[in-house]
Design a protein that fits this description.
Length: 146
Amino acid sequence: MTKFKATISKDFIEHRDSIIEKRSAGIRGADAEFPEFHQCIVDKFQTLNEGWEYDTYHEILGKIDYKQYSQAGVHISTHIQEQIKLGNIDMLGIWKWLPDNKWVELEEGMKVQYEILDYVDAKEAIKHLNEENRFTFPIDYDTIDE
Protein backbone atom coordinates (compact mmCIF):
# COMPACT_ATOMS: atom_id res chain seq x y z
CA MET A 1 0.00 0.00 0.00
CA THR A 2 1.38 3.35 -1.05
CA LYS A 3 -0.19 6.73 -0.33
CA PHE A 4 0.10 9.69 -2.66
CA LYS A 5 -0.63 13.40 -2.32
CA ALA A 6 -1.11 15.60 -5.38
CA THR A 7 -2.46 18.90 -6.59
CA ILE A 8 -4.98 18.73 -9.42
CA SER A 9 -3.40 20.35 -12.46
CA LYS A 10 -4.93 22.16 -15.41
CA ASP A 11 -3.58 19.32 -17.58
CA PHE A 12 -5.62 16.77 -15.66
CA ILE A 13 -8.80 18.87 -15.80
CA GLU A 14 -8.40 19.15 -19.60
CA HIS A 15 -7.76 15.38 -19.78
CA ARG A 16 -10.82 14.65 -17.61
CA ASP A 17 -13.04 16.96 -19.66
CA SER A 18 -11.95 15.26 -22.89
CA ILE A 19 -12.87 11.88 -21.35
CA ILE A 20 -16.33 13.20 -20.50
CA GLU A 21 -16.74 14.48 -24.06
CA LYS A 22 -15.20 11.55 -26.00
CA ARG A 23 -16.53 8.66 -23.94
CA SER A 24 -19.77 10.18 -22.68
CA ALA A 25 -18.49 9.50 -19.16
CA GLY A 26 -19.90 11.15 -16.06
CA ILE A 27 -17.82 13.49 -13.92
CA ARG A 28 -17.36 10.95 -11.12
CA GLY A 29 -16.00 8.28 -13.45
CA ALA A 30 -13.80 10.79 -15.27
CA ASP A 31 -12.38 12.08 -11.97
CA ALA A 32 -11.54 8.46 -11.10
CA GLU A 33 -8.99 8.61 -13.93
CA PHE A 34 -6.76 10.82 -11.75
CA PRO A 35 -4.70 8.08 -10.02
CA GLU A 36 -3.57 6.56 -13.32
CA PHE A 37 -2.85 10.03 -14.73
CA HIS A 38 -0.81 10.91 -11.63
CA GLN A 39 1.01 7.55 -11.57
CA CYS A 40 2.40 8.34 -15.01
CA ILE A 41 3.89 11.53 -13.56
CA VAL A 42 5.42 9.99 -10.43
CA ASP A 43 6.40 6.54 -11.77
CA LYS A 44 9.02 6.61 -14.53
CA PHE A 45 8.01 3.10 -15.56
CA GLN A 46 4.41 4.04 -16.48
CA THR A 47 2.99 5.81 -19.51
CA LEU A 48 -0.64 6.73 -20.07
CA ASN A 49 -2.55 4.80 -22.72
CA GLU A 50 -4.93 7.08 -24.59
CA GLY A 51 -7.08 4.14 -25.73
CA TRP A 52 -9.85 2.62 -23.63
CA GLU A 53 -8.56 -0.98 -23.52
CA TYR A 54 -6.28 -0.35 -20.52
CA ASP A 55 -5.05 2.68 -18.55
CA THR A 56 -1.26 2.62 -18.40
CA TYR A 57 1.67 0.64 -19.68
CA HIS A 58 4.21 -0.27 -17.01
CA GLU A 59 7.63 -1.45 -18.21
CA ILE A 60 7.70 -4.22 -15.57
CA LEU A 61 4.05 -5.03 -14.75
CA GLY A 62 2.67 -4.69 -18.29
CA LYS A 63 -0.72 -3.26 -19.21
CA ILE A 64 -2.55 -1.97 -16.14
CA ASP A 65 -6.20 -1.04 -15.73
CA TYR A 66 -6.87 0.92 -12.54
CA LYS A 67 -9.96 0.04 -10.52
CA GLN A 68 -11.37 1.84 -7.52
CA TYR A 69 -11.75 -0.17 -4.33
CA SER A 70 -15.25 -0.70 -2.96
CA GLN A 71 -16.39 -2.63 0.09
CA ALA A 72 -19.03 -4.16 -2.21
CA GLY A 73 -16.18 -5.49 -4.34
CA VAL A 74 -14.04 -4.13 -7.15
CA HIS A 75 -16.19 -3.82 -10.29
CA ILE A 76 -14.96 -5.06 -13.67
CA SER A 77 -17.25 -4.23 -16.58
CA THR A 78 -17.99 -6.85 -19.23
CA HIS A 79 -15.98 -4.77 -21.75
CA ILE A 80 -12.91 -4.85 -19.50
CA GLN A 81 -13.42 -8.57 -18.78
CA GLU A 82 -13.25 -9.15 -22.53
CA GLN A 83 -9.99 -7.15 -22.76
CA ILE A 84 -8.54 -9.27 -19.96
CA LYS A 85 -9.54 -12.49 -21.76
CA LEU A 86 -7.98 -11.17 -24.97
CA GLY A 87 -4.70 -10.52 -23.13
CA ASN A 88 -4.96 -6.74 -23.42
CA ILE A 89 -4.79 -6.20 -19.63
CA ASP A 90 -2.21 -7.86 -17.41
CA MET A 91 -2.78 -6.28 -14.01
CA LEU A 92 -5.44 -4.36 -12.12
CA GLY A 93 -4.24 -1.48 -9.97
CA ILE A 94 -6.59 -1.29 -6.98
CA TRP A 95 -6.81 2.17 -5.41
CA LYS A 96 -9.00 4.37 -3.20
CA TRP A 97 -9.43 8.05 -2.36
CA LEU A 98 -8.19 9.20 1.04
CA PRO A 99 -9.68 9.71 3.51
CA ASP A 100 -12.47 7.14 3.59
CA ASN A 101 -12.68 6.59 -0.20
CA LYS A 102 -14.96 9.66 -0.51
CA TRP A 103 -15.23 11.37 -3.89
CA VAL A 104 -15.62 15.11 -4.39
CA GLU A 105 -15.61 16.75 -7.80
CA LEU A 106 -12.02 17.61 -8.68
CA GLU A 107 -11.05 21.19 -9.43
CA GLU A 108 -7.79 22.73 -10.58
CA GLY A 109 -5.53 23.53 -7.62
CA MET A 110 -7.33 21.12 -5.26
CA LYS A 111 -5.13 18.93 -3.09
CA VAL A 112 -6.06 15.23 -3.06
CA GLN A 113 -4.81 12.00 -1.57
CA TYR A 114 -5.21 8.45 -2.80
CA GLU A 115 -3.74 5.08 -2.01
CA ILE A 116 -2.63 2.30 -4.35
CA LEU A 117 -3.66 -0.80 -2.39
CA ASP A 118 -2.06 -3.39 -4.65
CA TYR A 119 -1.67 -4.68 -8.19
CA VAL A 120 -3.46 -7.96 -8.86
CA ASP A 121 -3.28 -10.35 -11.78
CA ALA A 122 -6.25 -9.50 -13.99
CA LYS A 123 -6.95 -13.09 -15.07
CA GLU A 124 -6.97 -14.22 -11.44
CA ALA A 125 -9.36 -11.41 -10.51
CA ILE A 126 -11.99 -12.40 -13.07
CA LYS A 127 -12.02 -15.92 -11.67
CA HIS A 128 -13.57 -14.40 -8.53
CA LEU A 129 -16.32 -12.26 -10.07
CA ASN A 130 -19.78 -12.51 -8.56
CA GLU A 131 -23.11 -11.98 -10.35
CA GLU A 132 -22.59 -8.19 -10.12
CA ASN A 133 -19.18 -8.44 -11.86
CA ARG A 134 -17.34 -7.64 -8.62
CA PHE A 135 -14.54 -9.40 -6.79
CA THR A 136 -13.68 -9.08 -3.13
CA PHE A 137 -10.36 -7.40 -2.45
CA PRO A 138 -8.01 -8.71 -1.32
CA ILE A 139 -8.55 -11.86 -3.34
CA ASP A 140 -9.00 -15.04 -1.32
CA TYR A 141 -6.96 -17.45 -3.42
CA ASP A 142 -8.34 -20.43 -1.47
CA THR A 143 -11.70 -19.95 -3.22
CA ILE A 144 -10.50 -20.32 -6.82
CA ASP A 145 -12.39 -23.02 -8.68
CA GLU A 146 -10.01 -25.10 -10.77
